[in-house]
Design a protein that fits this description.
Layout lengths: L2 H10 L13 H9 L5 E3 L12 E4 L1 H4 L2 H6 L3 E4 L5 H14 L5 E5 L8 H11 L4 E4 L11 H7 L1
Length: 153
């Protein structure tokens, strides 16, 4: 009999009590499972303003913030390992479909660099009537990165 089978027998006979790990939040589970997986979309759980909810487009880092973003009234579109160029594709597709809201927050840059031309392209997609918010990626070591400099320019 294998050790696993012996453990199952002991549990079944109440000889030992299984120990469970501390509960894992949904956000931790999503972030852990993200890897470079498929796109995940979440609707807003709160209706804060008239009209469509603001949109948050991000990478795996944003998965850890899904719950507070939803509670704040954001619709979310995330994918692990997403680069800024893919985020632009999401914005273009939503614009063509007529579903791009008046406020868009982009949290990308963890997986590659961001260029000034990409930010300008995002602004062109949104036009003058919409607002584009850019989140600066946190860099390890507290060193200002080229992405942060581009976003802040």
């Amino acid at each position: 009999m294998t050790m696993a089978a012996q453990a199952q027998d002991a549990i079944a006979q109440d000889a030992i009590t299984p120990v469970t790990a501390a509960p894992v939040t949904a956000a931790h589970e999503r972030a852990r499972a993200a890897g470079c997986g498929g796109v995940e979309r979440f609707s807003a759980s709160a209706d804060r303003n008239p009209g469509p909810p603001p949109l948050a487009v991000g990478d795996s880092v944003m998965l850890g913030a899904v719950d507070p973003l939803r509670r704040s009234g954001f619709e979310i579109d995330v994918r692990g390992c997403r680069q800024f160029s893919e985020g632009l594709s999401v914005l273009r597709a939503r614009n063509r479909a007529g579903t791009l809201p008046s406020v868009v927050v982009v949290g990308l840059g963890t997986n590659w660099t961001i260029t000034t031309s990409q930010i300008r392209a995002g602004l062109r997609v949104l036009g003058r009537e919409r607002v584009l918010g850019l989140l600066t990626p946190r860099e390890v070591g507290g060193v200002r990165s080229s992405d942060q400099a581009v976003i802040r320019a």
